[in-house]
Specification:
By secondary structure, the protein is of the alpha/beta class. It has 7 helices and 9 strands, in the order αββββααββαβαβαβα. It has helices at residues 4-21, 95-98, 100-108, 160-173, 193-201, 212-220, 245-268, and strands spanning 29-33, 48-51, 69-75, 78-84, 112-121, 131-139, 177-184, 206-208, 224-233. Strand 3 and strand 4 (78-84) form a beta hairpin. Helix 1 (4-21) crosses helix 3 (100-108), helix 3 (100-108) runs parallel beside helix 6 (212-220) and helix 4 (160-173) packs across helix 7. The radius of gyration is 17 Å and the shape is globular. The protein starts with a helix and ends with a helix. It binds hypoxanthine.
């Protein structure tokens, strides 16, 4: 009998083979881009672009604002594989689909996993367009079933060493960098005012619909994780008017420049 785990690792191997056949050099770093952040990869020079649709077994994303391609490039002097677009639990995707890019990056030999996302700022001191270094996470949804040991310790999943480098990079580039806890919810709905109050009480600084399962998978495979959230809306009580996807995408487009600058400067310091 074929176990689902074998099916998934065979699919990851097939995807890896296609990328290497297309000329991808084994990456040192993998970066996953969140909603509206596809312009991150614009102007990266001698990039190798492979659409997800060309890659066997690669889950497809249907969410607007996600380009749907793997980009091999050099960023901050490091061989980098960028996943421009991700799939989410709320699209009905399986845990294997949501973590496929992580498994592929690990199989290709990447040692650093940079996860980015668009999220709502819960901390009243945050502003739209701020970047937030993720120090820890709350998995209000969790789907990384395919951990090698079955269960896994998550303390320290967001590398303190990488966070220190990112803080220095932000200071160098004069980028405002907040720091806090990310809560990953199932989505697809943005939070109600009551859910925002709950998230704040639970200690979250930002909330989004991705990231947590990817980071579980990455940490369990020994990748050093750097997480950066772009705060595309700050749904504070009183100011709350209901977040829209268009507002998230627009803020993502505006914030992508600072994000690429922060990530490349951080990678230069590795
Ligand atoms: N909530 C959840 N996900 C999000 C948000 C939000 O406010 N903004 C961008 N993604």
């Amino acid at each position: 009998m074929t176990h689902p785990r074998d099916t998934c690792s065979a699919a990851v191997s097939a995807a890896m083979k296609l990328l290497l056949d297309r000329g991808l050099e084994r990456p040192e770093v993998a970066v996953v881009l969140g909603s509206g952040l596809s312009s991150f990869v614009d102007g990266l020079g001698d990039a190798l672009v492979v659409p997800y649709t060309d890659i066997p077994g690669f889950p497809r994303t249907a969410v607007s604002g996600h380009r749907g391609a793997v980009v091999g490039c050099t960023l901050g002097g490091k061989r980098t594989l960028v996943f421009s677009g991700r799939v989410h639990h709320y699209e009905g995707c399986s845990p294997d689909d949501v973590t496929f890019s992580v498994l592929l990056a690990a199989e290709l030999g990447a040692g650093v996993f940079v996860v980015t996302n668009a999220s709502g700022g819960i901390d009243p001191g945050f502003d739209v367009g701020d970047l937030m270094l993720i120090s820890d996470q709350i998995a209000a949804v969790s789907g990384a079933r395919r951990l090698p040991q079955g269960t896994f310790r998550m303390a320290g999943a967001y590398s303190e060493r990488l966070r220190a480098l990112a803080r220095r990079a932000a200071a160098d580039r004069k980028i405002v960098l907040r720091e806090g806890v990310y809560m990953g919810s199932l989505g697809p709905t943005y939070e109600t005012p009551a859910e925002i109050r709950m998230a704040r009480l639970m200690g979250a600084s930002a909330v989004g619909m991705s990231t947590v399962s990817e980071v579980q998978a990455a940490h369990s495979r020994g990748l050093d994780v750097l997480g950066i959230a772009l705060l595309t809306n700050v749904p504070l009580p009183g100011r709350f008017h209901g977040t829209t996807h268009e507002e998230v995408l627009e803020a993502g487009r505006l914030g992508a420049g600072a994000l690429v600058s922060l990530v490349s400067n951080t990678l230069e310091r590795l």
